[in-house]
Design goal:
alpha+beta, four-stranded antiparallel beta sheet, three-stranded antiparallel beta sheet, 27% helix
C-alpha cells in the first residue's frame, strides 16, 4: 500500500512540472528572439557613416581686391578664413561650405596681377588636415552667369559687380561647413559661423 501511494505521488508530481517547463521554454524563446532582433537592429546602425570630428577656426577681416583694368577698380570686401585646427583628416569631396545655403566661393590668387579666379572652396578630391585653410569671399556666383569659375580681374564689368556690397559677405550671413557621406545618405554641419 505504501508503494502504491508513492507511485501516485510521483505521477502527480510529474504532471505538475510540465507547466513550469513550458513557462521556462517560453521565456528562453522570448530572450533569444529579443537578442536576434537587437543584433539585427544594431547591425543596421553600424552601416551608417561616422561623422568626422574636426575643430575649425573662423577668422573675419576686410581685404582690398583690385583688378587689372586702367584705371584699376578696387573693392573692400569682408572675408572669412576657415582653417582646420585639430581632429581627423577630411576628404574635400565630402565637404561643402555654404553661405546662407548657397555654395561659398573664394578667390585663388595666381601668379600674375590679372588672373585671379573665383572658385568653389574645398571641392576637389584632396584631403583637409590640420593647418589647411580657405578664404570665403562670396556666397554665390549667380551674377556671373551661373558659372563655377569666373575670372575676377580680366573684365571691368565683373569687378564692378563685385563692388556691389550685396555680392560680398555681409553682417548676419551664416557660413556652414557641411560634411556629407560618400553615398549621400548622411550629412552633418561640422561647424558654423555668423558674419559680424
Amino acid at each position: 500500500m505504501c508503494k502504491r501511494h508513492e507511485t501516485e505521488f510521483l505521477v502527480s508530481d510529474d504532471a505538475a512540472v510540465s507547466p513550469v517547463i513550458g513557462v521556462i521554454l517560453m521565456v528562453a524563446i522570448t530572450v533569444i528572439l529579443a537578442a536576434v532582433i537587437g543584433a539585427f537592429v544594431i547591425g543596421i546602425g553600424d552601416d551608417q557613416s561616422t561623422v568626422p570630428q574636426a575643430s575649425l577656426d573662423f577668422s573675419q577681416s576686410t581685404v582690398n581686391f583690385t583688378d587689372g583694368t586702367a584705371p584699376p577698380h578696387s573693392s573692400n570686401l569682408t572675408v572669412v578664413d576657415i582653417s582646420h585646427q585639430t581632429g581627423g583628416t577630411l576628404d574635400e569631396g565630402n565637404i561643402d561650405i555654404t553661405v546662407d545655403g548657397d555654395t561659398a566661393y573664394g578667390i585663388t590668387p595666381q601668379t600674375g596681377p590679372s588672373d585671379d579666379d573665383v572658385e568653389e572652396l574645398w571641392s576637389s578630391s584632396g584631403e583637409i588636415s590640420a593647418g589647411n585653410s580657405v578664404r570665403v569671399v562670396f556666397g554665390s556666383v549667380n551674377d556671373y552667369d551661373n558659372t563655377d569659375s569666373v575670372n575676377y580681374v580680366d573684365a571691368a564689368d565683373e569687378i564692378n559687380e563685385v563692388n556691389n556690397p550685396e555680392e560680398g559677405l555681409s553682417s548676419g550671413d551664416t557660413i556652414r561647413v557641411v560634411w556629407t557621406a560618400d553615398d549621400g545618405s548622411d550629412s552633418s554641419v561640422l561647424q558654423e559661423y555668423t558674419v559680424n
